[in-house]
Design a protein that fits this description.
This protein is α+β, with helices and mostly antiparallel strands and 189 residues long. The chain is built from 6 helices and 6 strands, in the order βαββαβββαααα. The chain has a 6-stranded mixed β-sheet with strand order 1-4-5-6-3-2, sandwiched between helices. Helix 3 crosses helix 6. The longest helix is centred in the N-terminal third of the chain and has 16 residues.
Length: 189
């Protein structure tokens, strides 16, 4: 939890709201696209402008942030805001510049583009989830073996039908946990 949690404007939500409900979709992996970092920069600039004058941390996360890694063609971005409960400070400005609310859950909001090709994860500054995303990203960028393992896992899971992208994401949990354990161990070497 953030050091700002004592200064929240209101209590956070206590349930998970998936705006629009579950979505059946076909998940496909694409070879790494060198344009993904440019898409990130474009959206980082859009987000920074929408949320000005607030200073927010914005990072490219997920598989599209790892050069050479096959990925769903969805650029994931994490944004750290001062107060997750102060939606008027970040949610309204992001919706005004074209993002749509998809998920509202304790400590996390997700907005995305109407084309569903960019997902923006919002957390409160200092949230452990942000560190976890960056730990995985940075390790996969450095460790070719774990990067290859992660890609093989994703390809294997895609042989199954998924009713919702969240179910596909959940199925990768064991491999992600093991990779992050190795990343933590590598930090201390």
């Amino acid at each position: 939890m953030s050091s700002n949690s004592g200064h929240r404007r209101r209590p956070d939500v206590t349930t998970v709201e998936i705006v629009g409900g579950p979505e059946a979709l076909e998940i496909t992996l694409h070879d790494y696209d060198p344009r993904w970092p440019d898409v990130f920069v474009e959206h980082r600039n859009r987000i920074r402008e929408a949320l000005a004058p607030s200073v927010v941390e914005i990072e490219h996360i997920g598989s599209t942030s790892v050069p050479g890694l096959a990925a769903k063609p969805i650029v994931d971005i994490v944004v750290a805001v001062d107060d997750i409960t102060a939606e008027e400070d970040y949610l309204e400005p992001l919706i005004a510049v074209g993002y749509e609310l998809r998920v509202r859950e304790p400590g996390h909001r997700l907005v995305r583009t109407p084309a569903r090709d960019v997902h923006v994860h919002l957390y409160e500054r200092g949230a452990a989830a942000i560190d976890e995303y960056l730990l995985l990203r940075d390790h996969l960028r450095r460790d070719a073996d774990d990067c290859a393992l992660y890609e093989r896992t994703k390809r294997s899971l895609l042989t199954r039908r998924w009713d919702d992208m969240n179910d596909y994401a959940d199925a990768k949990t064991d491999v992600i946990t093991a990779v992050k354990e190795r990343a933590r161990a590598a930090r201390t070497e």
